[in-house]
Every structure is written in C-alpha cells, then in structure tokens.
Amino acid sequence: MTTTAKHDARFATMTFSSVYPHYITKVEKKGRTKEELHQLIEWLTGFDDEKIQKLIEEKVTFETFFEKAKLNPNAPLITGMICGYRIEEIETPLTKQVRYLDKLVDELAKGRKMEKILRKG
Prior knowledge:
Layout: H1 5-13, H2 16-29, H3 34-45, H4 49-57, H5 62-68, E1 81-82, E2 85-86, H6 93-109, H7 114-117
Antiparallel strand pairs: 1-2
C-alpha cells in the first residue's frame, strides 16, 4: 500500500487537539497514564507538558504540530504496521510522522515497556 499527497493533505488540516483526547482514552483504558503518553510525545517531538498543552489550546493542525517539532533522530526506528500501512514504506513526510505517533500510542496501549517504545538506536 502506498500513501499519497492526499494523506498528507488530510492530516495537514486535522487538529492535534481533536485527536489528543482519543490518545488519552486509548491509553487509560488499557491501564496506562497521561504522563506516559506525554513522555512518548516528548521523546518523539521534544514537546514538554507545557508545550503540549499550549499546542492543544492553540488548536494547531498536525502540519503545524510537526513543523514545530524537533523529531527524535531515532524516529525512523519506529517500524511495523499501523492502520494497514507499513510505516517504513510511507513516503509522504507528514503522514509518516503522524503514523509514528499513532504507533507509539498503540504500543503504549498494548502494554509494551516504555524503554522499548522509546527507541534508543
């Protein structure tokens, strides 16, 4: 399966604040915490709790969210399937970045140990 510029366009207009509550629900339903979610967001993007809250309040799009992020150099180590796509084969940059975040949230919800989620390289 290949992604297209249409995927990026869809993510570009979607707000982080509209998806964030779903991330919280997903991880808490599986016994994980908001703090752990924030830890993985910070690992991927460099955003601390205060910055995450500010971006939510500003209702930034995923495009702006990832433009402001300093993506972890180990992010390409995030591989596998998410939503029917193999992450390492996604060619459109924004779609790949959003799927990195989705994959980390999935791993957290599935009970994976935090040291495994936060790839060290």
